[in-house]
Specification:
It contains 1 helix and 11 strands, in the order ββββββββββαβ. The strands form 2 sheets. Strands 2-3-10-4-9-8 form a 6-stranded mixed β-barrel. Strands 1-11 form a two-stranded parallel sheet.
Length: 154
Amino acid sequence: MIMDIIGVSSFLDFIGYKNLKQIPTRIDTGARTSSLWASDINIRDGEAVFKLFGPDSPWYTGKVVRRKIIEWREVTSSTGHVQKRPVVGMSIHIHGKRLNAKFTLSDRSTQTYPILVGRNTLRGNFLVDCSNPGEAKLYKYPEEATEFTGSEVK
């Protein structure tokens, strides 16, 4: 099987949402599940009712989205905090491929990237080149940053 090589960032389109295109996305092989920034999340009759992104996001439309909850996942953050999140399905277009992906819903307002694509979505579709910053390089180095030479390590 031939797989496309993707860097550690990309752009993602939500299929069926004409205004939600070219959204910066973090490609994260350390995360099992993909995660999507959602706000005003409510659970009703086995469905997640939410808004994509948050009011401070350039991609926020305020449109209410309803998706059947596929499952619930316990997600452990990098700080060790465990949270139970609903998982929903969304059709996406990323790096030239149309995929049906599962996303946990969470508040990613403090994160650099509004969407994180994890191993379950990447598996069988892409090889990740961690040396490639990818298409959506959002991180800006501080002006005072200097080159790391290794001599700083004792």
